[in-house]
Write a structure and sequence with these properties.
Length: 260
């Protein structure tokens, strides 16, 4: 296949940005009040991605592990802050629980894939490690947000049920099990739906990008299958850790529900 990718000029970007102006116009016609949000989000996207593009160009040229690790740490920190901004009702010790879950869940799955599956040499190869880690963290953020939000809602709605179970002698783990299970199911829904629809309903971004860059379609397909398994595993592990350690924070040391 032809490995040459068609470059986009500045005028090409200006052309596609006209679609955002169209979106702003439609929002104005419907009086949805989102015109300002669309404009500033589009501007932020442009500035942020251009900065990232130049930064990655520099990192690729350095061929050193330290800047790669620093970028991954920054990505993790921003992910935790973004999750915190999305979740209105936060569990006790929210940032500590979510931060640890993202670090070990996403980090563990990325290390597993890069080291044991594709066997990166060197292990910190930024052309693979940074984009793959970004996809894993980005998708896990959605699952983490859903899990934390749903867990808080479940404890709020099931408060009397949980307190009754505790009064009847149930353990904290058993009393919280229905809430934890419901939150876990909610967190996995986006990943499960994405896997079920992939290929027939839509072509995923990673696969499309590889094909556009000249990669053989079957190779792109195999990479997409692999990364979706890694993403689902990361979402499951990250969510599991958030729920497993998070639900305990709703109880006091006396095995009773905290007052919120």
């Amino acid at each position: 296949m032809n490995p040459t990718i068609i470059d986009l000029s500045l005028w090409d970007l200006v052309t596609v940005y006209s679609l955002l102006l169209m979106s702003i116009g439609l929002a104005h016609i419907l009086r949805a009040g989102q015109g300002r949000d669309i404009f500033w989000s589009g501007l932020r996207m442009f500035v942020q991605l251009m900065i990232v593009g130049y930064l990655l160009h520099l990192v690729f040229a350095l061929e050193s592990a330290l800047p790669v690790l620093l970028i991954l740490v920054v990505m993790t920190g921003f992910a935790v802050q973004t999750i915190g901004a999305r979740v209105e009702t936060k569990m006790p010790n929210f940032y500590r629980v979510v931060g640890a879950a993202i670090l070990f869940g996403c980090g563990g799955m990325t290390f597993f894939f890069c080291t044991l599956v594709i066997g990166l040499e060197p292990w910190y190869d930024p052309r693979y490690l940074i984009p793959l880690a970004g996809m894993v963290i980005g998708n896990s953020m959605t699952g983490a947000s859903l899990a934390a939000e749903r867990l808080a809602a479940e404890f709020r709605e099931r408060r009397e049920e949980i307190e009754t179970a505790l009064c009847l002698g149930s353990s904290v783990k058993l009393a919280a099990e229905p809430a934890v299970s419901s939150a876990f199911r909610a967190a996995l829904i986006p990943s499960v739906n994405a896997m079920a629809a992939m290929g027939l309903v839509f072509l995923p971004g990673m696969m499309t990008g590889q094909i556009l860059s000249g990669t053989e379609p079957l190779i792109a397909v195999k990479y997409q299958i692999a990364i979706m398994c890694v993403i689902t595993g990361s979402v499951a592990l990250t969510t599991f850790m958030i729920l497993r350690f998070g639900y305990r924070s709703y109880f006091t040391s006396y095995q009773s529900l905290r007052d919120h």
